[in-house]
Design a protein that fits this description.
The protein is mainly beta. The chain is built from two helices and six strands. It starts with 5 loop residues before the first strand and ends with a strand.
């Protein structure tokens, strides 16, 4: 099975891991992942439950993901899953 690969500046092969899913049950809505993503992949979603405005993240534009996994590295709850793209 072949995956999309790239080269680092030092010419080492790198396989980007693109965003696959986000566990909304685990997400606490802190926004760290939103702040670190420069490609508008994520968005806030408000969940109205009994007048308590709980926020959590959702994947809005997964096609914009470049596979850097910055969102996953900043997530303290480990809500994200990633996978390479198969050619």
């Amino acid at each position: 099975m072949a995956y999309i690969t790239a080269l680092t500046k030092n010419k080492q092969e790198w396989t980007p891991q693109f965003i696959k899913s986000l566990d909304e049950e685990t997400c606490i809505g802190c926004g760290r992942c939103f702040k670190v993503c420069a490609h508008d992949v994520l968005a806030f979603e408000e969940l109205d439950e009994d007048d308590s405005a709980k926020m959590f993240m959702k994947i809005e534009n997964d096609g914009n993901c470049i596979g850097c996994q910055a969102c996953g590295r900043t997530c303290s709850k480990k809500c994200f899953t990633f996978e390479p793209v198969v050619l």
